[in-house]
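Quick entry, no commentary yet.
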Amino acid sequence: MRLLFVLKMMAMAAAPVVPLVAADTSRERIEAGVRAQKAGDLKTASAAYREVLEKDPLLTRVRHLLGVSELQAGNIGEGIRQLEIVRRENPSNRQAIYTLLSTYIATGMAAPAGKIMESNLRGDLSAAGRFMRGSYAMAQGEYDVSIRELRQARKLDARLPGVSSQLGIAYCFANRLEEALPVLESALRENPSDGNAAAFLGWLYKDRDRNPEAAALLEQTVRARPEDHGALFLLAQLTQSRGDSVKAVALLEQIIAREPGHRAAHVLLARWYQQLDRANDAARERAVVERLNLELQASQPKVD
């Protein structure tokens, strides 16, 4: 399964404390922004924070709020820009640094993530610091390092949000599946809404033919993250195995509508359309698979 639907919003849940140095009118605007942000009205929240920052650009905690609001709105570049200003002007703001690093890791930006690791987190032996190091190592494919750091983070603070599911996922990528299983089950008990734990645990259950449990978890994941094509693909396979071909086909059709180059989904669709006597649809999908295969072959380097 694809790495890093893991960290995307990891450090964004908790907002920084409203700065006490703000004047009364600014404080009112900040509080209005926080209320809007909590309600999901991110446009209003960002506008309130920008209004305050126009009067006092040095309120880095407000800039932190603005950066988080922009990230939550999907404006990754602007969110990063604001948080980089916070990191530069207030390097002691660990929360902003963790959020920024999480964003770099989640979006595959290894170089700036490595820079933060080196310049800001070198001596950070806190649970959160080790969580960040473990997550960065996992993104780099250094799974043994990742497991070591995440185990230490969990030992220091078992209640750190996401630490158990992240450790379980690291075990999965290291192919240490027997160790992953109890950790992910524990993560889901601690936080039933943990989509990362649910998705990977569903994958493990499917691998062990625990199909009803796998389906329940994958359905939970897809409801929470409809864009998670890995979970949707597994759910389609489970649905087909239970004899509901029509629903399984509909799930695969969702995938290719969002990701037309998803070859595995096209392969299965061709087969399942044929089973449903939808010959024209099956032929179309086989043609798509053939085209994708040719494109893949053309992209491979030629060997003399």
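second:
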Amino acid sequence: MEFNRHFSRSDLEELFDDRFELPGGFMFGVANAAYQVEGGFNGPGEPLNNWVEYERSGKVEPSGEAIRFWTDYPGEVELAAGMNLNAFRLGIEWARVQPQSSATTGGAPPFDRVAIEAYSDMIAAVMGAGMEPVVTLQHFTHPYWLGLDFWLERDRLEQFERYVGEIATGLNRLLVEKHGMRPIKYWVTLNEPNALSMATYLIRYFPRKKSGIRKTGRAWGNMIDAHCRAYDTLHRVYGENGWPRPSVSYNTAHLSVYLLDKVMTDLLNARRNGVEQKDLPAYLERGRKAWDEEIARCPEVRKTPRWQMRLERLLVKVTDRFFRLEDLQHGIDAIYSSPDPDKMDYLAVDYYDPFFHNMVKAPTIQDIREKRFNLNAEFWEQVLNPRGMYHFLKAEVINGEGLPLIILENGMCYKVYRGKVEPRPDGATRDRFLQSYLFEVMRAVKDGLPLAGYFHWTMVDNYEWGSYEPRFGLFTVDRSRSPVRISTVDAWGVNAGKAYGEIVSALRSGDRERIIAAFLRDDW
């Protein structure tokens, strides 16, 4: 189906009437992840993370220099600030601040104070450019010395807890004492733990030694435990140092099945909602019913062919059959044993294509020629569904009353194969994508959802978990030379950075005609 803007001028006039008001301090930003952008991992003498075996064996394309964010971040920070953005999500690579360059597992090496100081300089640059840093502590990777199956070993979670404490203390003291700035306000403990546990132990796409449904649940339960430890550690460190209270959360990968997405958020908010541990099954069942009712209102659901909806319902039945709350017991125990009943200071979501029936596809002729018999839809084949995002946002705030909501990732992808960009199956362009999704973001704002920010994934094409073929960036990269060179347009040749920046500027201006013009403009 051809993708295009799903609204008219009259829709814009109705949305941006005299009652519309952009919330004060609303964050417009971009997001990246350290391993995907920094470069300098898993080569000789470089810090090793859990992808080193995949990279060195040839199972995936080496990450190499990525986009050199580790050294060249000042230019990218300037680029983001030039788009009139006021927020920047970036990450700390655990393997860099507690590095080991030999391919062995075992004891914990010392922390690298030089690397921690370099991260403080990076974050200070973001602050100095007038942008709010949102700092991710774990974005799918961990040091190789912890072993591939770190997330199955609850007794090693204290290593993550220690890492969080060292980073929170070290970074903030440097920001305050060296740079004369305030401590970091926004933290993300874990990126998409639901996706990480499934991609590792169920789908078996990410590096691991073991696999299986029960391993998936155990890993996810340990990630819930890790989030609780990180949340408590961050608040303790800030309290001990007399710093303003931080805002801490994790971000979920939006998926249409409640037990594979929202269940973790509802668990983390259970004590906050006065739910005793013995009452969790009934509480979660109410949450699932409310979630299912809202997701059923998505236009995607109403228009989906019957065979695809049967596939979706089959997955729900399979999930019901194999999902066991006791697999998450370590995480639940951590929630209820913590001295602090709060475990989230804001809600955070990543929205791409959340429907499972879209994730299954028949192999293309090119797949057959290249002997790639993958039945999973590729990033560039994801179905764009801006209307659906509105309903997923409404579903997310259920059981999270009083918490602000931030969209930490939203983006679309092109495929660049052997240096040549291929059109998306739906013909979508990134300017139309931004117009369509930001329309739904503003609709949610006007309807009273507590939205506090929107982050585009990502600013510059990066390393997408084993390959440089997927291109999510507002700006593309020429990888035919070293060092790589950042372009002024995206992979399709659209000035997407300009489009994003002008829409943001128009929204901040409050000028109705300027806003409407930005949402209808074609000549980027």
